[in-house]
Specification:
By secondary structure, the chain is of the alpha/beta class. The protein has one domain (about 5-55, about 65-120): 2,3-Dihydroxybiphenyl 1,2-Dioxygenase, domain 1, CATH 3.10.180. Helices cover about 20% and strands about 40% of the residues. The chain is built from two helices and eight strands; from the N terminus they run E-H-E-E-E-E-H-E-E-E. The strands form two sheets. A four-stranded mixed β-sheet has the order 1-4-3-2, with helices on one face. The protein has a four-stranded mixed β-sheet with strand order 5-8-7-6, covered by helices on one side. About 30% of the residues are buried.
Length: about 120
């Protein structure tokens, strides 16, 4: 059902370097690009993550209650995603661990303050 998710950035070059490295952890790469817009994904026709400078010219801001969650296959991948994000300058929003009901996740904020998480389902 999800085609793509778009997040705003105020520094497309800085954000591009961050997401190039972070999304490589998920085997995603750039699949579309213009001067003010980049999309990453696992391949054509699959859900992707986009970054853009806001079209209206106003500064990008963080959406309250907005989060992008990346489904990964194991707690180990949750940890590697989280650790990679932190090494790239992300801030911690909740270290990897069980959250109840078999939900295992780690939370970070990207360089623009957007909230991200990597999660998997485990036996509860």
């Amino acid at each position: 059902m999800i085609g793509y998710i778009t997040l705003g950035t105020n520094d497309i070059e800085r954000a591009a370097k961050y997401y190039d490295a972070l999304l490589a952890e998920l085997d995603a790469k750039r699949v579309m690009e213009t001067d003010n817009f980049i999309m990453w994904g696992p391949g054509p026709g699959q859900a992707g993550l986009c970054l853009t400078k806001p079209y209206n010219g106003n500064p990008a801001s963080v959406g309250n209650g907005v989060m992008v969650a990346f489904a990964v296959g194991s707690p180990e991948k949750v940890h590697s995603f989280y650790e990679k994000a932190i090494s790239l300058g992300s801030t911690d929003e909740g270290p990897p661990g069980p959250r109840g009901g078999g939900f295992y996740a780690g939370y970070v904020r990207d360089l623009d303050g957007n909230k991200l998480n990597a999660f998997c389902m485990t036996e509860s």
